[in-house]
Amino acid sequence: MDLHEYQSKFRFGEFGIPIPKGKVAATPEEAYDHARELGGKVVVKAQVLTGGRGKAGGVRLADSPDEARDIAQNILGMDIRGHAVRNVLIDPAADIRAELYLGVTTDRAERLPVMMCSSEGGVDIEEVAATMPEKIAREHIKPALGLRSYQVTNIAATVDLPRDHWRQFNQIAQALYRCYTESDATLAEINPLVITPVGLLAVDGKMSIDDNALWRQPELAEMRDISAEPEAETLAREAGLSYIKLDGKIGCMVNGAGLAMATMDMTKLFGSSPANFLDIGGGAQAETVAAALRIILKDPNVKTVLCNIFGGITRADEVAKGILQAVKEVGIEVPMVVRLVGTNEEEGRKLISESGLSNVISAQTLADAAQKAVQAAGEEA
Ligand code: GDP
Ligand code: MN
Fold it and tell me: For ligand 1, what atom is nearest to the CA of residue 122?
């Protein structure tokens, strides 16, 4: 789960990282009030869960409260790479002399957190890594030892940070690492960390929290911006389903991630493509199946639903009941190909065939099911 810039920076602030004393506004009038309260120049910043806001015109300086209001008016409602702007952050403008990048992320290959820093701040770190890899300082951190001061010294020296900032840089690096670990983050990044006449300042912040740790980070879980995610993903999370929307026409409802991947491959093999990845999990009850079907049918691209269930823990008759329940509730206009095998498969098939649903097509094997689904979607088989 990603946090907004303002959420990340407020969190950084709690760990002692210097941040601008800004406030969030949802209307131009609020932006005016905040700017007046702060006094002087401010920067108006779109709060969206995507980078490159600066380039897209979502970060602009204002000389007066009136200008802040006009800019906020302009930025609120703007679309930045498919993300609608609902809030702006009003920060006092920083007097920027230089911009650095400083981040901690999880290096999966090394199985360790890694701190990265570059003198080329403000730019995407991926871009720096591709064009000037020598400009990035990296230090892997052993969790049992924590971030050692000599590592921070190495980083500061590598990026040629002026000596008079080293002490503060060490404090910020330590705080950022602490923030990363204590937040169960997979990424905590300051880009840019700027040098001002009065010291270092975290002007932009980004954090990604490990979804698997949200249960023990209730304060962070609270921060989820549901308005920024597709409705289907919210519904899926609430129903305990893993769902990822894709661009094809075949809505897939499968139990088990591996089987779901195989099913998606089969739709491709027969000339179409999957509309989603969806794993209803083991032991799915009728209620869960109904929720899954509702989510799949919300996607207008879906021309056929392909339901591929291997009954191990999940009982095929439970799934059949779920399908019938969902069809009764939401109605289903598109054809649906159902393959039920495993525990209680006869009962499951019987429930489906006796329901009298005309648009439900039964299939025996996965290949058979995929082929029928592709045909039903009106694509080449
Ligand atoms: P991003 O484009 O989404 O990464 O947004 P940032 O918050 O990083 O802002 C982009 C750029 O705007 C920064 O790299 C800075 O150059 C500039 N910027 C942001 N805040 C300020 C500020 O307070 N003062 C000045 N002068 N420039 C700023
Ligand atoms: Mn940035």
Answer: 14
Mean pLDDT lowest among 149-163, 317-331, 359-373: 317-331
Angle at 51 between CA 45 and CA 54, to 5 degrees: 45
Percent of the chain with pLDDT over 90: 72
State the Cα–Cα distance between residues 292 and 214, nearest whole angstrom.
Answer: 23
* Closest by Cα among 179, 209, 246 to 49: 209
Half-sphere exposure of 7 (CA within 13 A, CB side): 20
| Distance from residue 145's CA to the centre of ligand 2 (Å) | 30
Nearest CA-CA partner of 250 in 238, 235, 266, 236:
266
Q: State whether residue 30 is helix, strand or coil.
A: helix
* Cα R_g (the chain), whole angstroms: 26
The larger pLDDT score, comparing residue 125 to residue 44, is at 44
User: Which are the contacts of 231, defined by CB distance < 8 A and separation ≥ 6?
Assistant: 298
CA of 203 to the centre of ligand 1 (A): 7
Neighbouring CB atoms inside 10 A of 33's CB total: 17
Query: What is d(CA 210, CA 220) in angstroms, rounded to the nearest whole number?
Result: 10
Nearest to 370 by CA among 255, 280, 249, 246: 249
Give the torsion sign (CA, 223, 225, 230, 231).
Answer: positive
Diameter over CA atoms, the chain: 80
The two three-digit tokens of residue 39, written as one number: 């006094």
Distance from the Cα of residue 301 to its chain's centroid: 22
Selection from 34, 3, 2 nearest residue 20 by Cα:
34
